[in-house]
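Final report, closing paragraph on structural work. Over the funding period we assembled a curated collection of sequence-structure pairs, and we close with a single example.
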Amino acid sequence: MKCDKYMGMDVHQAMTVVVVLDADGKVILETMVATEAAPIIRLVQSLSGPLHVTFEETTQAAWLHDVIRHFVTEVVVCDPRRNKLLAEGSKTDKVDARKLADLLRTGMLRSVYHGHEVTRKLKELVRAYETLSGDSRRTMTRIKAIFRGRGIRTAGRGVYQPKQREQWLEMLTEPGIQQRAAWLYEQLDQLRVLRRKAKQVMLEESRKHRAVGLLKTIPELGCIRAAFIVATVDTPHRFRTKRQFWSYVGLAVVTHMSSEYEMKAGQVVRRRKPLATRGLNHNCNHRLKEVFIGAATSASQHKSYESVRERLNHNGMRAEMARLTLARKIAAIALMVWKKGVEFDPKKLNATT
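Its predicted structure, as stored:
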């Protein structure tokens, strides 16, 4: 009978260090292989029996996952933030690879989800649009920083308008600073053109996905937000309940408490009011969190959510907590609409609380 083998891979740009353990944790192979498809495939095919492979989520993770997933029994792309064991003791490539294999063998790794090929193009287009949008914002911030650094007030968006740029540049008396600002203006113009192109292509690709059309029927989830959700989540069936989805998005409330129990009359009893710290989980998907918080902020004026807003106001909920509750509501609706494959029905709005 062929026993299971567990392979840990410490992946780098040029070379990958590989350690293979048997079911008892004994090292049966230590080697190095070029970080290329052909030699890696030859290596995994040379090992007989069920082979379980793990490596950390890095730049090469998506590529390597696709390269070897058809040649092994299991591929676990793990979250490096949770691999605390790797920080203990000596740290070398071989040690890291062996620890990864051991964590895989003992079932102590948490995998990172890698989606289907159907949404891969949309994922890349969304990432490109996000990158260009972020670069545009940074360039705009740098332009304002130049003027503010010279005591020139830049309220509003007039400083970015092409028709007003000559006037703004004349306020900069130093030639070097003036030239630097002119280059930043030129960079901003180029980024805006690319950003518009990226947005157009992204939206064209998003229309090929039925889920985008369903999510767009939800008030305040427009074309861009719906495309972001589909590109990020990939499939709603990853989440069995809305609470799991809230946790992934970053809308779940995390409680930290200590000293929950005390002694009374010689017996251990739970405190009635344990000291607790509450807050949103920081380990979340920041793109989706921004999508749903932004939708909740816009929904504060939308008629479809009027009954929800009135109920929250009647309960005396603080504005920031009301916004969080509304964001959770919209996220739950999005998950339900996507799973059932039906358009949003305002009459069933209260059924998702």
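The chain has three domains: 5-105, 118-206, 210-352. The longest strand covers residues 27-34. We thank the funder for supporting this effort.
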